[in-house]
Design brief:
three-stranded antiparallel beta sheet, globular, binds acetyl coenzyme *A
């Protein structure tokens, strides 16, 4: 009682809040293990459906194959599309990020489909419908027979994607599908621990994701690149932003003390995509200068490129509107949230930490 906490204690830095078999972030070495494999060995090599099968397997103990997941997600996308008329009215007048929150809050169980699949299948259908709605267009119907990445792109853009584009989005979905005890996953686990249902838990997780310190960063990354505009303006722009005390989006991380391994995986995916729309040399120059400037500003606190910097460039190169970047992050992370919620529910333990009271005590004079 009456004990002020340090900044690290307030942020729960380094406090293990769950036992998990799902993923592990090794911050000092810059490693990320998802479902027992390094992220670089999964992205571009294993499909989103196969990694999803492994995570759901790990969380529930029920054997699932890539083919099972592919079929159940296809069916779930179709069912979500059939329910759009009921989900979309709540989104009118809202931005895509906020409309997504309102629509996913309306999800409920579908008979014959696991709740996990209902959630993960519905997310790209809702994201696609909101992007089309913002253009004044009708939603594009899903195709249950193509991959989740291919269908996501089709519903977002209204046309079939080519193989390189599908591979790039698939690599992105795998790269960001789970990431230890990040803020949105922790939120999801807290809600799941109360025995609230999976839909409540993932809606809460999405709300936590939307903040710029977490999954809301990629849109501002593009705004930063736009604002810098030319090579000559990199130095003065970064200098002014840091002098104003601003945080540069796409840099820094609570856990990583070296480069976020996901940044390199996504950079490689952009190179494979060889997108005409992505000015990777310019972005790389901005990145290199910002890393240098952050080293000068905070010599004792390594601040390196995080996943959001290259997320912004990759999703932009795929012609996904920047207003939809956070929902697209959720399309991937929904797998991690659902797996963590199930893993938490299996423990049967309510998450209920304590607080340090620093307010007045009745009958005790303030010192
Ligand atoms: N730009 C400038 N300065 C920064 C940045 C940044 N991106 N990140 C941290 N710093 C500074 C802080 O202001 C702080 O300075 P101070 O000691 O003078 O106050 C110092 O570095 C140390 O910061 P920490 O408290 O150690 O940072 P924290 O662990 O809270 O931050 C975070 C992690 C929130 C990601 C932060 O680096 C940040 O705000 N980055 C920009 C937003 C961003 O990229 N978000 C996406 C994160 S990845 C993801 O969630 C998927």
């Amino acid at each position: 009682m009456n004990m002020h906490l340090t900044k690290s204690q307030i942020g729960l830095d380094g406090v293990p809040a769950a036992e998990t078999v799902l993923s592990h972030v090794e911050g000092e070495r810059g490693e990320l293990i998802i479902a027992g494999e390094h992220v670089a060995d999964l992205a571009g090599k294993s499909s989103f459906e196969s990694v999803t099968a492994r995570l759901w397997n790990g969380a529930t103990g029920r054997p699932l194959s890539e083919a099972n997941v592919r079929a159940s997600l296809g069916g779930a996308r179709q069912r979500a599309f059939d329910r759009l008329a009921a989900l979309l009215p709540a989104t009118r007048g809202l931005s895509i990020v906020d409309g997504f929150r309102a629509a996913i809050a309306g999800l409920r169980g579908e008979s014959g489909i696991d709740h996990e699949a209902t959630v993960v299948g519905a997310f790209p259908v809702i994201a696609g419908a909101l992007v089309q709605q913002a253009k004044g267009h009708d939603p594009v119907a899903p195709d249950p027979n193509i991959s989740h990445a291919a269908d996501t792109l089709k519903m977002l853009r209204g046309r079939k994607a080519d193989a390189r584009e599908i591979a790039a989005l698939d690599a992105y979905l795998v790269t960001v599908c789970d990431h230890g005890m990040n803020a949105s996953t922790f939120t999801t686990r807290v809600v799941a621990s109360t025995q609230a249902d999976l839909f409540a838990a993932v809606t809460a997780g999405y709300c936590a994701l939307t903040g710029p310190l977490h999954g809301g960063a990629p849109e501002p990354v593009l705004e930063m690149l736009d604002a810098i505009g030319t090579r000559e303006r990199i130095k003065p722009w970064v200098y002014d932003a840091l002098a104003r005390g601003e945080r540069l989006m796409g840099f820094g991380h609570r856990i990583y003390r070296v480069r976020d391994p996901r940044a390199d995986v996504l950079k490689a995916a952009i190179e494979r995509l060889a997108a005409d729309g992505a000015d990777l040399p310019f972005a790389s120059e901005v990145e290199a200068y910002i890393r240098q400037a952050l080293r000068r500003k905070n010599p004792d606190r390594p601040l390196e490129t995080n996943v959001e910097f290259f997320t912004a460039i990759l999703l932009d190169a795929l012609a996904i509107p920047r207003q939809a970047f956070t929902p697209i992050f959720a399309v991937a992370r929904a797998v991690g949230w659902t797996a963590h919620a199930r893993e938490q529910q299996r423990t049967g333990r309510l998450i209920r930490p304590s607080s340090s009271y620093v307010g007045p005590i009745p009958g005790v004079a303030r010192g």
